[in-house]
């Protein structure tokens, strides 16, 4: 599993924007930036839609005021789902990242198998990345939502 001080792997992520999508190596996407990356088990799922993503939407300006260049939400979903979810949540200030096959999630060791619920998913976490290096890492215990929420990350910045 990835740890503090590790470099982000070069696994592909699909960046979802209003204009379309582009697949880039994660290391390239995060290079030269201070990034808050948070991951959810699934787009449109209850806690993710009611609390996790909305918290970052509401606090985006406060987080960016702490010197953050990019706030990104990642899920092991396809790019079309991530775009629709971002639009539904008015997440214009958040970069929605699709990890469709879970390559990035597996590369950092934060995958979980949910069986019939959805198969391979990401654990819930947040991390602060500076120029591709993990400076802060907050991994939720199973069925918890405390350390990765926007309020907790903002307080730690």
From TrEMBL:
<dbReference type="InterPro" id="IPR036249">
    <property type="entry name" value="Thioredoxin-like_sf"/>
</dbReference>
<dbReference type="GO" id="GO:0034599">
    <property type="term" value="P:cellular response to oxidative stress"/>
</dbReference>
<dbReference type="GO" id="GO:0042744">
    <property type="term" value="P:hydrogen peroxide catabolic process"/>
</dbReference>
<dbReference type="Pfam" id="PF08534">
    <property type="entry name" value="Redoxin"/>
</dbReference>
<keyword id="KW-0049">Antioxidant</keyword>
<dbReference type="InterPro" id="IPR013740">
    <property type="entry name" value="Redoxin"/>
</dbReference>
<dbReference type="InterPro" id="IPR013766">
    <property type="entry name" value="Thioredoxin_domain"/>
</dbReference>
<dbReference type="GO" id="GO:0005737">
    <property type="term" value="C:cytoplasm"/>
</dbReference>
<dbReference type="InterPro" id="IPR037944">
    <property type="entry name" value="PRX5-like"/>
</dbReference>
<dbReference type="GO" id="GO:0045454">
    <property type="term" value="P:cell redox homeostasis"/>
</dbReference>
<keyword id="KW-0676">Redox-active center</keyword>
<dbReference type="GO" id="GO:0008379">
    <property type="term" value="F:thioredoxin peroxidase activity"/>
</dbReference>
<feature type="domain" description="Thioredoxin">
    <location>
        <begin position="2"/>
        <end position="157"/>
    </location>
</feature>
<protein>
    <recommendedName>
        <fullName>Glutathione-dependent peroxiredoxin</fullName>
        <ecNumber>1.11.1.27</ecNumber>
    </recommendedName>
</protein>
<keyword id="KW-0575">Peroxidase</keyword>
<comment type="function">
    <text>Thiol-specific peroxidase that catalyzes the reduction of hydrogen peroxide and organic hydroperoxides to water and alcohols, respectively. Plays a role in cell protection against oxidative stress by detoxifying peroxides.</text>
</comment>
<feature type="active site" description="Cysteine sulfenic acid (-SOH) intermediate">
    <location>
        <position position="48"/>
    </location>
</feature>
<comment type="similarity">
    <text>Belongs to the peroxiredoxin family. Prx5 subfamily.</text>
</comment>
<keyword id="KW-0560">Oxidoreductase</keyword>
């Amino acid at each position: 599993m990835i740890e503090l001080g590790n470099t982000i792997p070069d696994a592909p992520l699909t960046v979802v924007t209003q204009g379309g999508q582009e697949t880039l190596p994660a290391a390239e996407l995060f290079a030269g930036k201070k990034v808050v990356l948070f991951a959810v088990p699934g787009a449109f799922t209850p806690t993710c839609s009611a609390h996790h993503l909305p918290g970052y939407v509401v606090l985006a300006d406060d987080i960016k005021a702490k010197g953050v260049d990019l706030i990104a939400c990642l899920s092991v979903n396809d790019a079309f789902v991530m775009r629709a979810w971002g639009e539904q949540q008015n997440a214009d200030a958040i970069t929605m990242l699709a990890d469709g096959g879970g390559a990035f999630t597996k590369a950092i060791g934060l995958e979980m198998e949910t069986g019939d619920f959805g198969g391979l998913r990401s654990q819930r976490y947040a991390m602060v990345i500076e120029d591709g290096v993990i400076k802060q890492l907050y991994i939720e215990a199973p069925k918890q939502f405390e350390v990765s929420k926007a309020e907790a990350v903002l307080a730690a910045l």
